[in-house]
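Help! Submission page says 'invalid entity' but I think these are all valid:
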Amino acid sequence: MAETCAVVGIGQTKYSATRGDVSIPGLLREAASRALEDAGCGWTDIDAVVIGKAPDMFEGVVMPELYLADALGAVGKPMMRVHTAGSVGGSTALVAASLVQAGIHRRVLTVAFEKQSESEAMWALSRPLPFAPPTLAGAGGYFAPLIRAYIRRSNAPDHVGIMVGVKDRENALRNPYAHLHIEDISFEMVAESAMLWDPIRYLETCPSSDGACAMVVADEAAGDRSPHPPAWIHGTAMRSEPTMFAGRDAVNPRAGRDCVADLYRQGGITDPRRQIDMAEIYVPFSWYEPMWMENLGFAADGEGWKMTDDGSTSFQGDLPINPSGGVLSSNPIGASGMIRFAEAALQVRGQAGEHQVDGARLALGHAYGGGSQFFAMWLVGAEKP
Amino acid sequence: MSDTDTVEPVRSIRAPARLEYRFTAGAAQSRFLRHLVEGKILAQRCPQCGKVYVSPRGACAADGVATREEVEVADRGTVTTFCVVNVKFAQQVLTIPYVSATILLDGADIGLMHLIQEVEADQVHMGMRVEAVWSPPEERGPTLESIRYFRPTGEPDAAYESYREYV
């Protein structure tokens, strides 16, 4: 039986295209310091550090955790690095939580980051594979065919993807940390933006951001004494599946469905649409909102797009999705999953400011990565489990 | 006045990185690659689920068993889904726009990624029947690039139900 644990501190940097004012260690230090301040504790109160980022090839710094230990106060403490591609921010938080749930540590600092201005993700994700034609064209090139298959399978109208692109950028206007603040965002602006990876338009795509996100995960005693309301962890789950196997449903992957089933079982969720108040999910391309609505059991197969279309997922809807603006508004890749987890926690702590969802008591944080084969999720609540 | 007041601080430097590696294709894929030189596409059937893998990797990732039975599959098939790439990026080899497609070869149970050409990008569609355009025999090597690209055959489209499980 896992020990009860909670998020007691959250720190985010301002996300932007270029944080030229700080180095990579400085960027992490900024997020971590804010998380410690929020938790009302100092560097010496931290027992261990768990860090995550997307592939080292992005910034070209191999095993950056080694030189980042100093900036994160981890010298002489256990430090661990997590790798699960785009889902890594979520998986990193789960590894931190597991160290507390297992009773090994009382307070763990977890940090995830990307500095895309010092990186070239599009290049790194488009290297020709040996013995194959050079068809790869970044993450969009991989996910566009899956989106096309989803649209065909569900007969969703074209405007649904555009609606998500508008909604998440409108949400971002209420989040001071968000990278994109497009004041005059409109349906027409998204619809008329360039078709980059048909059927994905420019404004249906996430930006390239610099940024870091950090959390302090603590045991029950530390949670009870925390200066701000903690977010209690009600469930954690990770699953993965191979990228390529005959019969794989890459549009609605089995690993995601299994992962969320485990999560709901732990959290006693039998009717997610009614029991869960809001969710922060990993939507790097607009169509992934309706696709994940189905994978996460919020909608029946083929019906996810209707939740976007009828406004259910909007800030005022019955299941607000990504009130922070989501990955579509801020994408420091390695941190993007952790931001989802942290934003879910912020909501149940009542600390989300202008993008606070009224009455959010139970929230889902979700991340996915690789070729839709890595999944990480947690369920956090205002009350103890 | 000291130099530090007049010299702009260094904020970043360019540090070129190079990565060299040796890739071992493995027994199953090596046989597949050698057959491409002869204009043949070699696949492997899983003894458990019966699915036909191309390119073969020597094992079925779903069942976790070795796939020893070799079968030849056709060099024509169906476009199950695709992307029209219209993004420029560093060291891009192809000229945009180009179509990168998942092609379900006749006789296979998993899609193969390749290029679609000899047709306007906006004419490519799901279910389109396509065939391999091979390099001349003397130019072929042990690589999928021995197939230069796929092009439409002109056959009627495949029924959606025949390929919907293979995207």
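Support: the input was valid. A stray whitespace character was the problem, and the output above is from the cleaned input. The mean pLDDT of chain B is 92.
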